[in-house]
Structure formats: structure tokens, C-alpha cells
Automatic annotation (TrEMBL), chain A:
Origin species: Anoxynatronum buryatiense
InterPro entries to which the protein is assigned, alphabetical: AAA+_ATPase, ABC_transp_ATP-bind, ABC_transporter-like_ATP-bd, ABC_transporter-like_CS, P-loop_NTPase
Family classification: Belongs to the ABC transporter superfamily.
Domain of life: Bacteria
Matching SUPFAM superfamilies: P-loop containing nucleoside triphosphate hydrolases (SSF52540)
SMART domains associated with the record: AAA
Keyword Flavoprotein: no
Phylogenetic lineage: Bacteria, Bacillati, Bacillota, Clostridia, Eubacteriales
Protein name listed in UniProt: Nickel transport system ATP-binding protein
Sequence ranges assigned to domain ABC transporter in this UniProt record: 3-248
Keywords from the named record: ATP-binding, Nucleotide-binding, Transport
GO biological processes: transmembrane transport
Automatic annotation (TrEMBL), chain B:
Stated family: Belongs to the binding-protein-dependent transport system permease family.
Annotated transmembrane regions: 12-32, 75-99, 120-148, 168-189, 201-221, 241-260
Listed GO biological process terms: transmembrane transport
Recorded superkingdom: Bacteria
InterPro entries tied to this protein: BP-dependent_transpt_permease (IPR050366), MetI-like (IPR000515), MetI-like_sf (IPR035906), OppC_N (IPR025966), Staphylopine_ABC_permease (IPR053474)
One of the record's GO cellular component terms: plasma membrane
Compartments, as annotated in UniProt: Cell membrane
PROSITE patterns: ABC_TM1
Keywords for this protein: Cell membrane, Membrane, Transmembrane, Transmembrane helix, Transport
CDD domains reported for this sequence: TM_PBP2
Protein name as it appears in the record: Nickel transport system permease protein
Annotated ranges, domain ABC transmembrane type-1: 71-260
Record-linked NCBIfam families: Opp1C
């Protein structure tokens, strides 16, 4: 088992209340597992707590209660630093995901420097290989983030995410701020990378269509709880929970096809 | 960044002015035509001529020599003050911004208190307590200004720690020191450089103001503010006396301000 979360809860203090703090509960005891090589989608509307869950899995924040294990190591325990380098992340907002003072090559080198596993003379060839993998040419190497388009920059972010051969990549709304044609390109890239590198994805999104394109399994989340889990994408139209149905019907309305047709078309 | 700065004409001019002024200040004893302290009471308020290129003041001292020697206290003390203020304020701001929680609250409430006093009045109060003199003026200015920097730098650190690229570094296991050295310090530093060059002008004026009021540099030592103060006594009879130190101050202070503006543009990778 690659990643296991057990009953994680998280609440935040409402801002601005200094003397009388008020809590908002964002996650109410969420459990999930991700197997090696699996791609799990997490669907929910904004504010449902899915990005918070992502941050807890990454270990950027600590859960109030519950545990997260990655490769059988408790996240953020002592000695976890080595293990966590096998996890990576791509954020929604590519503009702030990279330090805008860095050139593309420094962006790509950052995870290597953190992991400290590669001699710096090998960086150059490694960078070229990474850029080629995500479909960018070598000439982007010396550019600054603001000289790239959104799609290109998100490709750079993906390249950075796979730079130190992770097992799990958390995609936190990774395609949501791109336009539709670019979304499809990035999804294709993700599918390709997954095959080549045997990656696992945890794909956080509000776009059910993208989930069907990429994932093996999908979790529906509402108000901090996982309300339904669908293990087989072909059975997606069997979802029972009214909220999941609403999402599904909304997605179907967009495509104008029945769900099964859609599944067949992409698979 | 430097290339961008060199392309900017305003930056180039202001840097040249500052550079020349600093050079003149360093080599003042060599460059100055006369001894700035030597009084010639018969030749007081002399018009500019070959011996005294800018004339003499009310004690017959050479104006140009005094201006040149005045660069040292004016610019170098401002520089010292600015550097100390930034180091102190930056350190406190970094600690507050990075630590969060109760430490942050305590530091920021202290800063709030400091900032709620009008700064010149506070300087006067501190100088009043510690006594007149240049050292006390510098201490007073540092004591007032650090709070301002602490707040700016804290907000800068806070803004950057919430950015996704810091989140990413944390997620892939970067240590605290890696994040601070590689992301936070460069980000904060460019902001500091800009603030500092904008603030240099303020500090110079502040030091000159205090000297003008007779609290800073004591006569007969030459300092621009003190020179203005002496010239003020002869405002009616010899108004040209104020021109030398006045123009010099305006020139250097505005150079620093313009340089600050240009630096801000140059340090922003999105611009130009």
C-alpha cells in the first residue's frame, strides 16, 4: 500500500477572531488508501475540503486527529524526510507554483538539490530529458516563468514534479486553470507519464470528465466527508448518493452523451 | 537585473550622482581647496572667486570645502543608520513572519506601539533623554525605524511562505533552512534593497533636520543640515548662503529616491 489515511480531521481557526477563536471544521474523519500504480480521483465542489486533504497527505499541514502513512512511514515523523521525496505535487495555480525569480532550469533542479542525490554536472542533461518528456524543447531552459504560457508553465511544473522519480504525484486541481484544449493535452501527458514511469496519481478536481479520462477509482467528497466511492469507472452511472448523481448529471449535460458512450469513447 | 538597471537612464544618472558624491566624500581632504574649519573673519560672506569657488560663510570659512567635508557625516551616517535599521528590522520581521503564533503576536504588538508615535517626535524624545550628539541621533533613528522595516519584511515573508512554490518545496522535503536561503531571503532581499534606497533619502533628511535644529552634529564640524541652519541666520542679508547645502541635499536625496524607484522596477522580473 502506497498511501493510507485513517480518520483524518482538520479544522481551522476563523481569521480575525483573536480573543474568541472560532473553529471551522474542514475535514471530518476522512479515510482513504492509494495502491501502488493506482490513480485515484477526488471530486467535490469548492470548499468541500479536498485541497486541505491534499495538503495533509503531502505533509505540509498536520491533521488535528487521525494518521497518514506513506510507504508505511507516518507522515512528518522523524526520518520521514527521505521517504517524502518519493511524493510530489502539482498545484492548480501555476503562476505561484514556481519562484518567479528562477529560470526554468533552476526550477527543474530544485527537487534534485533538495534530494541531494545527483551531481550538479548531470543536471543539464537531466533537465533536457525532463523537458522532452513533458513535450517542451531545450530552448525553454533559460526562460523565466513569466515568459511562458500557462500550458507551458504547467508542463514545467509537471516536469519538476517527476524530476526525482516519485511514486506518487498529487495533482491538486492541476488542470483546472487551463483552457479546454490545453487541459486535454496535459491529461494526455499525464496518461503517458503514468505508463512510462509507473506513477500513482491522486487527482483532486471538480471536473468529473477529467477524472473519467485519467482515474481508476473515484471518491466523491462533500462538506469534509467522503460520501461515495466508485471502484470501477464503468459503473460510474450507478452512483447512489444524491450529491454524486447531481455532479454526474451536470457532467453529462455538458458532453451531451450518455455516460457509457463517453466511457467507451475514451477507453 | 544589473543590465536592466543600466538601461534605465534615471537610474544611471542617480547612480552617477551618488557615486561621485561618495567619492568626493571619501577624498574630501584631497579635493577640498581649503581647510573647512579655518575662519577668516575679514573675508566673511565673500562672493565666489578663485580662492573660494562657492564663497565663504559667516565666519569666512570656505563653503565648497565645508560642503565636501559635510558629505561624510551626511551620507555615511545615513548609510550606517539605514544598514543597522534594516538588519535589526529585517531580523525581527523574519522571525515574526516565519514563526507565526504567539511570538509573532508579541513582536507585532510591540511594533504597533512603536509605530503609533510620530517618528520625528520620538527621535526628539530619545535625543532629549540621551543627550545631544551624532551618536544619539543615529541610535534614536534606528530605534524608531526598525519597527517600520519589521512590519514590511514580516508581511513580505508571510506573503511568500503561503505561495505554492514554498509549499512545493515543503512537500518534497526541503528543510527549513533550504527554504529560507533559497526562496525567502532572495525574495525579501530585493524588497529590502528597494525600501532601503527609498529610505536613505528620509534618513538623510532626518539627520540633517536634527543637525539643523542643533541636536545632531555640533558646530564647527561641517554637516549640510547644520550649514543650512547657520545660513538661515543670514537669510535676509545673504540668501545665497543656503543654496550650496540646500541644492546638495535635494540632489542627493532625490537621487536616492529615484534609484529606489528604478531598483523596484529592475528587481521585478515581470517588468520590462
Amino acid at each position: 500500500m502506497l498511501l493510507r489515511a485513517d480518520q483524518v480531521s482538520k479544522s481551522y481557526r476563523k481569521p480575525g477572531r483573536w480573543l474568541k477563536p472560532e473553529q471551522t471544521t474542514v475535514l471530518k474523519g476522512v479515510s482513504l488508501t492509494i495502491q501502488q500504480g493506482e490513480c485515484v480521483g477526488l471530486v467535490g465542489e469548492s470548499g468541500s475540503g479536498k485541497s486541505t486533504l491534499g495538503r495533509l497527505l503531502m505533509g505540509i499541514e498536520k491533521p488535528d486527529s487521525g494518521t497518514v502513512y506513506f510507504r508505511n512511514h507516518l507522515v512528518n515523523s522523524t526520518g520521514y524526510q527521505q521517504v517524502r521525496q518519493q511524493m510530489s505535487v502539482v498545484f492548480q495555480d501555476y503562476g505561484t507554483s514556481v519562484n518567479r525569480r528562477y529560470r526554468v532550469k533552476s526550477i527543474l533542479e530544485e527537487p534534485l538539490k533538495i534530494a541531494n542525490k545527483m551531481a550538479s554536472k548531470d543536471f543539464q542533461s537531466h533537465n533536457i530529458r525532463l523537458l522532452e518528456t513533458v513535450g517542451l524543447s531545450e530552448k525553454f531552459m533559460d526562460r523565466y516563468p513569466h515568459e511562458l504560457s500557462g500550458g507551458q508553465l504547467q508542463r514545467v511544473c509537471i516536469a519538476r514534479a517527476i524530476a526525482n522519480q516519485p511514486d506518487l504525484v498529487i495533482l491538486d486541481e492541476a488542470i483546472s486553470s487551463l483552457d479546454v484544449t490545453i487541459q486535454l493535452q496535459i491529461l494526455d501527458l499525464l496518461v503517458k507519464l503514468r505508463k512510462e514511469m509507473k506513477l500513482s496519481y491522486f487527482f483532486i478536481t471538480h471536473d468529473l470528465l477529467a477524472v473519467t479520462y485519467l482515474c481508476d477509482r473515484v471518491l466523491f467528497m462533500k462538506e469534509g466527508e467522503i460520501i461515495e466511492e466508485v471502484g470501477d469507472m464503468k459503473a460510474l452511472d450507478q452512483v447512489a448518493h444524491p450529491y454524486a448523481r447531481t455532479l454526474l448529471e451536470a457532467a453529462m449535460k455538458v458532453t451531451g452523451v450518455t455516460w457509457n458512450n463517453h466511457i467507451q469513447k475514451i477507453s | 537585473m544589473i543590465r536592466k538597471l543600466l538601461k534605465d537612464k534615471v537610474a544611471l544618472v542617480s547612480m552617477t550622482i551618488i557615486f561621485i558624491t561618495v567619492l568626493l566624500g571619501i577624498f574630501a581632504p584631497v579635493v577640498a581647496p581649503n581647510d573647512p574649519m579655518e575662519t577668516r573673519i575679514i573675508q566673511k560672506y565673500a562672493s565666489p572667486d578663485r580662492e573660494f569657488p562657492l564663497g565663504t560663510d559667516h565666519l569666512g570659512r570656505c563653503q565648497l570645502s565645508r560642503l565636501l567635508h559635510g558629505i561624510r557625516p551626511t551620507i555615511f551616517l545615513s548609510l550606517l543608520t539605514t544598514v543597522c535599521t534594516i538588519t535589526l528590522g529585517g531580523l525581527v520581521g523574519m522571525i515574526a513572519g516565519y514563526s507565526k503564533g504567539w511570538l509573532d503576536e508579541i513582536i507585532m504588538r510591540a511594533v504597533d506601539v512603536m509605530l503609533s508615535f510620530p517618528s520625528q517626535v520620538m527621535v526628539l524624545a530619545v535625543v532629549g533623554m540621551l543627550g545631544v550628539g551624532m551618536r544619539n541621533v543615529v541610535i534614536a533613528t534606528i530605534a524608531i525605524k526598525w519597527a517600520w522595516y519589521a512590519r514590511m519584511i514580516r508581511s513580505c515573508v508571510k506573503r511568500h511562505t503561503h505561495q505554492n512554490y514554498v509549499n512545493y518545496a515543503k512537500a518534497v522535503g526541503a528543510s527549513q533552512s533550504f527554504i529560507i536561503i533559497n526562496h525567502l531571503i532572495p525574495a525579501v532581499l530585493s524588497e529590502i534593497v528597494m525600501l532601503a534606497s527609498l529610505d536613505m533619502g528620509w534618513v538623510m533628511i532626518s539627520i540633517s533636520t536634527l543637525s539643523f535644529l542643533g541636536l545632531g552634529i555640533q558646530p564647527p564640524a561641517p554637516e549640510w543640515g547644520a550649514m543650512l541652519s547657520e545660513a538661515k541666520n543670514a537669510l535676509m542679508t545673504h540668501p545665497t548662503q543656503m543654496l550650496g547645502p540646500g541644492i546638495a541635499l535635494v540632489l542627493v536625496v532625490s537621487s536616492f529616491n529615484m534609484l529606489g524607484d528604478s531598483l523596484r522596477d529592475a528587481l521585478d522580473p515581470k517588468e520590462g
